Amino acid sequence: MDFVVLLGPPGAGKGTQAKLLAQELGIPHVSSGDLFRDNLARKTELGLLAKSFMDRGDLVPDDVTVRMVIDRIGHPDCEAGVILDGFPRTLGQAVALDDALVAAGRCVSVAPLIQVPDDVLMDRLTARRICRQCGAVFNLVSNPPEVPGVCGECQGELYQRDDDNSETVRNRLYTYYRDTAPLIGYYFARKLLVEVDGQQSIDDVQTALVAAVRSMPGDCQ
Ligand code: ADP
Ligand code: ADP
Ligand code: ZN
Q1: Which candidate, 52, 160, 163, 201, has a CA 20 to 30 Å from the CA of 138?
Q2: Average pLDDT for residues 40-64, to the nearest whole number?
């Protein structure tokens, strides 16, 4: 298995599942959203550029996004495979990823699509809380921390993302259907798409996801 491309709308559980899958498979989790947020926290030029798009729930332009992710997946820790979360998000990004992987003799092995209906996504995202220190993902309703406001993994402080308000979430969902949903057809046509019911418990989604990944051939022929 080489690159796992996690597909699904915002709030489907990609980040939650990617962290578990990374442990299960022993390969890194690369989240484009986390890379942007890390740049923003460090006030890099890239982070400041991305901020205005992220605040509106719009996509950051393809050229900067592709450069950032391709750079990250070229690091040595990515040699045995990668779980991509939140990238690609446009057909242009998907083509750029394929071009870069072909040039490196590598490939996308599987593209699991985590499906969750919109009304559930809205509820999940507005109740999402993140650990400032380790990035662990919680939910006030479905996955609450044991101590309110405190991360159960590292005791870090939990916060709500600026873009997890109902107005911005609506635009992120709109953007998903307009720009990202076409990727479902892109990976279906390449026989890489596997659908997973994202409304099961976190553990059951993980079991289905591991089965989906293992159902695909491991090599890049
Ligand atoms: P994404 O990365 O796709 O935006 P997250 O992994 O951040 O999604 O999950 C969105 C929210 O839904 C979080 O608050 C998370 O705790 C919660 N969540 C994730 N998986 C499930 C699930 N299977 N059932 C209920 N809530 C979930
Ligand atoms: P979600 O929880 O909605 O999946 P992410 O953390 O993946 O959120 O993304 C947050 C924001 O970062 C997006 O709304 C967008 O502005 C920007 N972003 C993340 N990944 C990409 C990408 N592949 N292309 C363009 N913009 C991106
Ligand atoms: Zn933490």
Answers
A1: 52
A2: 96
Per the CB < 8 A criterion, the answer to whether 155 and 129 are in contact is: no
Architecture of domain 3-116+167-215: 3-Layer(aba) Sandwich (3.40)
Phi and psi of 137, rounded to 5°? -110, 130
Identify the three-state secondary structure at position 122.
Answer: helix
pLDDT tops 90 at residue 1: no
pTM of the model: 0.97
**Residue 129 annotated to the active site:** no
Q: Which of 42, 213, 218 is nearest to 114 (CA)?
A: 213
Instruction: Characterize the bridge pairing of strands 29-31 and 82-85.
Output: parallel
pLDDT tens for each residue of 88-116: 999 999 999 999 999 999 999 999 999 99
pLDDT of residue 221: 74
Residue 158, phi then psi, degrees to nearest 5: -90, 145
In angstroms, the CA 53 to CA 48 distance is 10
Name the residue with higher pLDDT: 217 or 25: 25
**Which DSSP category does 12 fall into?**
S
Q: Which of 19, 37, 72, 128 is catalytic?
A: 128
Distance 219 CA to ligand 1 centre (A): 30
